Amino acid sequence: MKTRTLLWAALAVLSCAKGAPQTAAVGDLELALAIDPDPPTSGDNRLLVTIKDASGNPVDGAHIAFVYGMPAMGAMPEMKGGGEVKPQDRGRYQITYRLPMAGDWSLTLGIDAQGHPHQEVGLKVSPPHKGFRVQSGRGSVAGAGAGAGAGTGTGTGAVIEVSPERQQLIGVTFATVEQRPLAVTLRAAGLVEVDERKVGEVTLKYEAFVEKLLVGETGKAVRTGQALATLYSPDLLAAEQELLAARRTGGAPEIVGAITQRLTYWDVTKDQIAALERRDKADGRATIYSPASGVVLEKNVVEGAHVMPGTMLYRIGNLGRVWVQAAIYERDAARVAVGQPAIITLPSQPDSALEARVTFVAPTVDQKTRTLEARLELINPRLTLRPGMFADVVIEVPLGVALAVPDSALLLSGEHRYAFVDRGQGRLQPVEVQVGVQAGEYHEVKAGLAAGDRVALSATFLLSSEAKLRDALPRWRAAP
Q: Can you give the pTM of this predicted structure?
């Protein structure tokens, strides 16, 4: 006993320059703690730890984990970090750490020594103020948790104790796991296009020359039956002459019918044929009319041009109803379906949101962009939606009702996710959670949580640090 007293006295004398040590009984271990420099500083600091067993014998070969932290305050984010632990001799350990700034800092030690249960101790330093305060000295929390009826099965860690005061200090809040309707929001880039069902083309079926353009510019609005151009065609002249000759000579009805049919195939109307027979004079000239109301999308002819059969002279589209083609990412292809509601906004009209529905989903994926086209239809009475415009498309895909947990309650560790479940009286248990689809701020729960569980929403990193110190997270346990 006398020898033990002398050892502690020698340690106190040795530490005077660094600050007087404090002792703490933690489980079956006794610690002597000192800081260097004293007062601590915003910069490099050292924590000197001496560990002895209940008989006063030095404990060498212990594994020490160390973290420091300061909770978020106002606009300042939470700060945290670790330190470098260097074992020395005779149960002494030196921890070097760097504090970013002055203020109140919490230091937490986790101690694992062979033959002893896991232990933990917390300290408080407040540079530039002198000294430190031992906040807590607790034994293995896993043992306390098991006594409270919390298991540590697959994916479940030991219960950790975080007092309500500390929960409030580090900003822990809670939410309840419950059944809720979930929906996935699909966002896609869209392009305004002409409704292909409202497009008409004026294509020439015989050789001709363009005498006069009555509609001579792209973008001009036209109506059904409006004259577009006048033509002269030697082929048309020959057919007209044959018809008139057959009429004058009383030709066989089948001959007259064949010539009339040929003119009809060339888009010469019955009224035009009747007018030709009344004037009894062929001139080989024809007027081309618009097949639909809309605007001229393309014009591929000029006055005096020689055009051959099959030449498209005009392309006319009705913009009173347009399509928006949305490019859906391949990973979301299975979720988009006909009938789903969507909201469309245009960069040129950011304050207006247009409601639409999916009317068609393409059966193939574009090999270059790896996207799938989903078509939406919109009425466009004011012609504010113009082909070629970009659009932002948002499609809400309902997933039905499912058990869900807030995203902020999940702690990501590698490929695994954990939530801290409230077990009452300041006890929290890390539980591995298997999740499904993410729907906004919620994750679908596949396994690990049950309806009614209260989970910690914030400060999960600080909670994970405490759980790691206590060896409470299964995936973070050191290999034996």
A: 0.53
